[in-house]
Amino acid sequence: MKNSNIIALNKQEEIDLLQSILKDGAQRMLAVAIESEVEGFIDKNRSLKTANDKAAIVRNGYLPERTIQTGLGDIAVKIPKVRDRSGSNLKFNSQLVPPYLKRAKSIDELLPWLYLRGISTGDFPEALQHLLGVDAKGLSANTISRLKNSWEDDYKSWTKRDLSRKRYVYVWADGVHCNVRLNDRLCLLVVIGADELGNKELLAVSDGYRESSASWEDVLMDLTQRGLTVPPKLAIGDGAMGFWNAVGKVWPTTDQQRCWVHKTANVMEKLPKAMQPKVKEALHNIWQAETRDEADKAFDYCIERFSTKYPKAMACLEKDKAEMLVFYDYPAETWQHIRTTNPIESVFATVRLRTHKMKNCGSRITTLTMAFKLMATAQKRWHRLRGSKHLADVITGVKFVDGIKQIADQKQDAA
User: Fold this and answer.
1) Is the pTM of this model over 0.90?
2) Contact criterion met (CB below 8 Å) for 276 and 268
């Protein structure tokens, strides 16, 4: 057929042209931004004069051109030089392109993400060519190996950081099992904290034997020895007794909240599929109740309704009743954060994906390092807790009943 109404789309030359336009535009914008930086630096120091009453800070050409690796490919950049004729030794350093910067921060974040997504070290050059262009340099297998070594140093330094000036109101804890070598399992123990301003922060990524009491106790004691001497007000975790035994020893004053997501899953496992939707609805009626009294009634009704036919499922639910409802003693605005261990589960998903795709993740320290890098990168996008304005009250011991702050008159009425 000579006539055809098929239009060819996504031609390679069109894609290359678009890439070239975007790259050229980015290069010009970066040059303008750097020029603005140097002009601001000169203007800030305009009052400095030489002995002849001339401007002491003046332009002095450019440093040699260098390239920065970005998602659009290598971008050439020239950094202006500034001469200080006052003897004050003032130097201009671009905040956009600091000295020795070789690649955009987004690429440094991309590398551990790709590794955890299942890309092996030897496959990085080919994978990155598709992302950064065929001219991408400096990302050979050896380069990736050196980067992984630097990540290991970052992890070791992070595990020794001082926590003496920190105060955490809530902490979430959970464990995930990973394959390290064939027939060898590693349990990652992770703790995330929320400070008095509501900012979430990764506190610990360690390894342990399963989720034993001794392993969790080592993690909590390490945090204490590095300065975290004031225990958090509330700890959130699943039903693993190892963590709660450790909390009882190391942080005896910390309240304990069981994760509703884990509890729901545990109850569902003991039910036939046909009954799961009805029981799940009954569980939702408990933790979505406005007050503890309403939650107690919904709890008792659920037990009474289903215990005859499904005693194991209801026994699983009933054994942690007190710990399931602790969140009512904390600000209602933060309930959605403290009823579950979701802050940890969301970052665990990629770790599980990596260990599922690869038959082994490498050594113990490699697995720890990769998990740390992924979580540290994710931390930059974590949002502040809702209701963070109430956390200072939680720290000072202000009482909350059904999520509502109790003022003096309310306390007297409650008495």
Assistant:
1) no
2) yes
